Amino acid sequence: MQLRYNYRVYPDAPQRRALAQAFGCARVVFNDGxxxxxxxxEAELPYxxxxxxxxxxxxxxxxxxxxxxxxxxxxxVLVQSLRDLHTAYRNFFSSVTGKRKGPKVAPPRFxxxxxxxxxxxxxxxxxxxxxxxxxxxxxxxxxxxxxSRPLPAAPTSVTITKGASERYWASFVVxxxxxxxxxxDTEAGIDLGLTHFAVLSDGRKVDSPKFLRRxxxxxxxxxxxxxxxxxxxxxxAKARKRVARQHAKVADRRxxxxxxESTKIIRENQAVYVEDLAVSGLGRTRLAKSVxxxxxxxxxxxxxxxxxxxxxxxxxxGRFEPTSQVCSAxxxxxxxxxxxxxxxxxxxCGTVHDRDINAARNILAAGRADRLNASWSAxxxxxxxxxxxxxxxxxxxxxTVVGIQVx
Length: 407
What we know:
The chain is α+β, with helices and mostly antiparallel strands and 407 residues long. It contains 9 helices and 16 strands. The strands form 4 sheets. A 7-stranded antiparallel β-sheet has the order 2-6-7-1-5-4-3. Strands 10-9-8-11-12 form a 5-stranded mixed β-sheet. Strands 13-14 form a two-stranded antiparallel ribbon. Helix 2 packs antiparallel against helix 3 and helix 5 crosses helix 8. The radius of gyration is 26 Å and the shape is globular. The chain starts with a strand and ends with a strand.
């Protein structure tokens, strides 16, 4: 499996100038290639092949006075920039034809030198690891790296990135074998929320740290200072950098906390099940700031890749599962409830439920059933597993759906 390892990089002044030149050249080549393909499409000409486009915007462009400065940077950077354009087009075509799952992918767009993120990518023939702990980048030099942990294998590529806070990062792609953990008998269903970040099916509740909310007072003061600076002035550039660095600190704290919590959950459970939330839709409601502050998508993605890395099972259940409406004890569907109802009593069996813990237990039951059904469909089980739902009857005689927890 392929993993990505990020490290902080500290270039000196000449290296920062060389990296800025490399960022600009990669951006120009990307935009030239995109412009050439758009013009060919508007003129109803055939789609320009990758090799022909590379000869046009790199090889031939270097011989002109207008683009002669492209030869001052490594050719690996320029070729990889065009490959990123090829990948963007392939993803767009796959999305249009229905081959790519998930939300629709927009066509590639032009890059700007004012983008918050600038990056270059190099393959193995454009960089190397030195014995003294530095990373050599072609036509940039030996970059000082803060090695927070050793690489498990030789990297196949590296991406040098500069963010809005003007911090530099080196991201290495490494091919490594999975690190399986000892098998356990415990499984967990996780209900994500805002009052509590996560509620597990065993009753444990993880409080939400709310990193952005805690930093809002300081951010408000810094944003106000930024708005008072004259546009185009050096003081405004300094104030913008201070705001960007504060946002980067908030993101770093959130990411570090997500890593610690996801690692703990994966180590303690053999299987983890979560609900497939519509985060992009919730991010457009009045709860948008709290939703983005929680970072559910990042946390779930960490759970997924760490489960594959350590030999655990990870499953998602449908977002339309009535996890908050079904009694996890008897399976009676008791109907929708407003968010203000945090505890409720089942009318059938009389069990008093905590809303979030009950939802987590239903997520666990739904994930187990989906996993058993998938195994049976693949021919890995000899008998048909019990269905998670079956017909039942309310006290008033009206038919309903009763959930059965599969153990």
